[in-house]
């Protein structure tokens, strides 16, 4: 495979610590690499080094001559003065980019509901992020680097991006490196995995599932095996080996080795025991939504929702942004009142919500972690074992040194984990998680799921993380067209329903366009005899010119392909001859469209 870019003996250090020490790696044609590791270990830094955005303190980064590289990093911003159209396609005429299937695909996948003429500065942060991603993907790149591209994308957007990246290049060409905590996405797009840890980058074959298998084998064979980490990864591997319920294919790694490693590993949850415990704590009544509808300022949000939440129920809730998921959760917690219908809460219900606002930490912002934990319960039961708050902190990735850190100085992921811990120590019997994966790396997500496996209550999860939804819930519902719909087929059924809904909308739009076209045709002025003949002659002439220039471009492409590929100057001359021909064809096609519309 042809080499695209690489690093040789990279060394990088900051005043307080060494990030990389003698790292050597390469990216070849056809490579699709997922990059994983703990937050803060250098995943984003590695991408920036390889892209040339920062310089190493030692070693070097090499790139094959002529290789083009596009990158989306977490700090990317789009000029706020531009419109969405200008930010994505620049000054290219609409008839040109509209004829490009790739550009249409990107716009349809990421910006279908955007106002094409909206000013970027008026958009939300998530919308600007989608515009930046679209602007990158419409370009022609040999190599693409993506840093957390699934942030601000819903389940549909993530599925679209995975499909786009899988078919963007032909087999054996192009290169992709992606940093993401979305494990489903990693498994879909990656053929190799780089784990960033302890100043090195360790390569593994295959996507996330294969990486987990190899990591468990590595830990088992290592003399310094960390038993807690190994056990957690064995549990993760057992889940992957059984296969997520909504997946069409199971991970392609050495199934015999996997079976041997997890032969004695039980299912992630003892559903029967958890349900019995939940019923004992909650009774038979949790929360019932009875024929509930909600409207705000005459705008319908939810209609005729019937949902009787059971003790021990573990439900994932799907829906596009703005569909009404937060309103639905508000009905459950009691912060939203129904417009019609009624909501009934059980007498022993104690609801807690893990929100995105970190509100649980506001009162302890300046306190040290150890002080915050010291004021809580002395023990917590998880997986049938009694754990101290300190042990729970350790299980969620906190070190002893971090216990003396003020809450305000914790990283985003650490605050998120502390927030969850405080909620669990309060022992609610109904737990609501609203996008709980924010700021967490893949190891911490596995630890979070391990804790949730032993939660003896009702669990409601809203998330765009497909892997998490399938992993911690037993059933899924969706908010679709103001209705609350059960999804026996899980995530795949939801995507199919959304796709069929989009197709119906497209058909309606097409019918409207046809009506508009008929109206325009009826209003079109008729040409007289001489004008009609002249227009027909010019149209025929344009068709001959377009065919002639197209043949010349095809001939140039053949010459470029047959030319000595090391003669960059000669290739540059040939390539330069193509551009004016393409511009001339574009002008001919514009005039051809005008005449075609005139002639009907």
TrEMBL record:
Domain ABC transporter: 5-223, 287-506
A GO molecular function held by the record: ATP binding
PROSITE patterns from the UniProt entry: ABC_TRANSPORTER_1, ABC_TRANSPORTER_2
Keyword Coiled coil: yes
Keywords attached to this entry: ATP-binding, Coiled coil, Nucleotide-binding
Pfam family for this entry, one: ABC_tran
SMART domains xref list: AAA
Coiled coil: 532-559
UniProt protein name: ATPase components of ABC transporters with duplicated ATPase domains
Organism of derivation: Herbiconiux ginsengi
